[in-house]
Amino acid sequence: MKRAFLTCLLVALLPAVLSQHLAAQTNNAPALLTFGPWAACEAGMFPPDSFYCLGVTPGSETYQLLIPNEGSLGIIAYHYNVTATLKTGEVRTLTGVVERAVDPAPYTFTILNFGGPLKDYSFTIQNLGVVSLKTRLSRAN
Predict the structure, then answer these.
(1) Which of 31, 88, 109, 138 sits in a 20 to 30 Å window from 24, CA-based?
(2) Which of 36, 37, 20, 130 is CA-nearest to residue 76?
(3) Alpha carbon distance 107, 57 (integer Å)
(4) Element (H, E) at 65
(5) Number of C-alpha atoms within 13 angstroms, CB side, residue 78?
(6) Which residues are CB-neighbours of 64 under 8 A, at least 6 positions away?
(7) Which residues pair with 46 in a beta bridge?
(8) Number of domains into which the chain is organized
(9) How far apart (Å, rounded) are the C-alpha atoms in residues 114 and 93?
């Protein structure tokens, strides 16, 4: 029974997930994608007490920031700054550094949580080389 349920779930959600990832790959630009089951649960695709939605609570909505790995091999990390407006109207900004994924991975990603579903967002990505990363880390200590 569980296997049949998981198979149906995969078939139902796979097109939506793949379309987001394929759109990001086609554009070869950074993208912020929904991550996890929360979007399907909040949209009412599954009952709140279903196995699929057990861990989903308001504020647990996660997103995946997808950054294409292209350009100089001297890039060892990316600095990101994401400003988002929640559906409630509240504005939140998340800033951080994510280490570049090892080649030949086409993308580097990190998981972000803004504390609610997003209405709108914008972001900037800055490439960090060996020198700039060492400078940034030494200032933090």
Answers:
(1) 88
(2) 130
(3) 29
(4) strand 62-68
(5) 24
(6) 32, 33, 34, 35, 109, 110, 111, 112
(7) none
(8) 1
(9) 8
Query: N- to C-terminal Cα distance for the chain?
Result: 53
CA–CA separation, 130 vs 64, rounded Å? 25
Q: What is the pLDDT of residue 10?
A: 47
Q: Which backbone phi and psi does 105 adopt, to 5 degrees?
A: -55, 130
Tens digit of pLDDT for each residue in 33-52?
A: 999 888 888 888 998 889 88
Q: Name which residue leads in pLDDT, 20 or 57.
A: 57
pLDDT of residue 92: 96
84: tokens are 């988002």
Domain that includes residue 112, residue range: 2-140
Task: Return the number of other C-beta atoms located less than 10 Å from residue 100's C-beta.
Answer: 17
The one-letter amino acid code at 131 reads: V
